[in-house]
Amino acid sequence: MKHKTRIHSGFTLIEAIAAIVVLAVAVPPMLWSIQDSQVSRVAPILASRARWLATEKLEDIIADRHSTTRGYGYVVAANYPAEPSVAGMAGFSRSVSITETGAAMASGGTGYKLVTVTVGWIDARARARSLSLSTVVTDY
Fold it and tell me: Which candidate, 119, 48, 125, 129, places its Cα nearest to that of 84?
């Protein structure tokens, strides 16, 4: 009579524990790197939107300056109130500062206005960010 030998297939307890250890060590850093790549991908998009919002407001102000009904005198901070939440762009705020100066742009005077638009937002890492763009409008 022949004895049949049984072949057992499957994992031993040691192999199962080794697989769990390898997965426990390898998976978390892999997930963190995926998350970090997503956050890094979003940062330039948010900065680009902020630049667009600042440019849009500067163009509005320049258009007001050259308007026949508004002109240079209309370009004052009171006519451009802060926007704590920009319509249609959730998470962004925008403010305008206008300083009248002389030709040297460093001291008091008249004839030139330094217009600065600042856009703020919270990035994907929950840090406050801001971007400022400036231009000069003149009375001439």
Answer: 119
Across the strands, what pairs with 7? none
Instruction: Please give the Cα distance from 64 to 35 (Å, whole number).
Output: 44
The letter for the amino acid at 13 is L
Nearest to 67 by CA among 57, 55, 59: 59
CA 32, CA 89: separation in Å to the nearest integer?
28
**CA-CA distance, 123 to 87, in Å (whole number)?**
18
Q: Are 102 and 109 in contact (CB under 8 A)?
A: yes
pLDDT in tens, 52-106: 999 999 999 999 999 999 999 999 999 999 999 998 888 999 999 999 887 777 7
Dihedral, CA of residue 45, residue 50, residue 53 and residue 55, to nearest 10: -100
